[in-house]
Structure to design on (235 residues):
């Protein structure tokens, strides 16, 4: 063995010893390689070979609990309905299906619809009525208008004021919301025959009129408009 062979052998031994000190030796107790797709929900107990649930992280995590809906505030329908009444319960049912429903906003629209419908009926405006009434109510109004026209009569109606518009009923029927409103208004209404003579009402006298109307809307429909589905004279 020449001097160069001895040098290379010594260098190889030195390198082997350095690697051994850095990497260590296998002892049989090493952990298996990390598998990111392995189940980490349970471990097996060597004694019984049964699956044992792992504790929650830091012992603080628990299964998520269902969130209870917040109770409706006691004054939810203040100025519209007394809490606990059938009317309030009906409004609750409507809001449960239509979160955007606002009874005060509805009443504003109902007042406008009431005046428009009464005026359109007096003028025989079928086109406006068709957009505001259900088919059944429209058929009744249209029949009355046709009979009036056949007799040659004309009606004039003017609103002096709408004194009250109060909710008196609300309910859900399937996916259809129904709301009943009592209107108290001051009207001047007169009917003339074909000769122009007054046969009903007065062109000057103000009359108080009470009407009870029911409006409905299909909550599942994208159409936001309510339609008149029933009318009756109020007390």
């Amino acid at each position: 063995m020449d001097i160069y062979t001895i040098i290379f052998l010594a260098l190889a031994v030195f390198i082997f010893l350095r690697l051994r000190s850095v990497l260590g030796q296998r002892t049989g107790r090493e952990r298996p390689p990390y598998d990111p797709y392995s189940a980490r929900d349970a471990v097996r107990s060597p004694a019984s070979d049964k699956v044992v649930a792992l504790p929650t992280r830091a012992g603080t995590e628990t299964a998520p609990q269902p969130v209870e809906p917040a109770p409706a505030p006691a004054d939810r329908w203040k100025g519209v309905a007394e809490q606990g009444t059938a009317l309030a319960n009906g409004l609750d049912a409507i809001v449960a299906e239509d979160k955007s429903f606002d009874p005060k906003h509805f009443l504003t629209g109902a007042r406008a619809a009431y005046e428009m419908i009464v005026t359109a009926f007096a003028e025989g405006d079928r086109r406006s009525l068709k957009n505001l009434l259900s088919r059944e109510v429209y058929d009744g109004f249209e029949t009355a208008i046709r009979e009036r026209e056949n007799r040659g009569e004309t009606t004039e109606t003017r609103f002096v004021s709408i004194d009250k518009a109060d909710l008196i009923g609300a309910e859900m029927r399937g996916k259809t919301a129904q709301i009943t409103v009592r209107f108290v208004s001051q009207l001047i209404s007169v009917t003339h025959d074909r000769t122009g003579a007054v046969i009903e009402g007065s062109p000057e006298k103000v009359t108080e009129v009470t009407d009870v109307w029911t409006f409905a809307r299909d909550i599942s429909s994208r159409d936001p408009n309510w339609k008149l589905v029933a009318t009756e004279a109020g007390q």
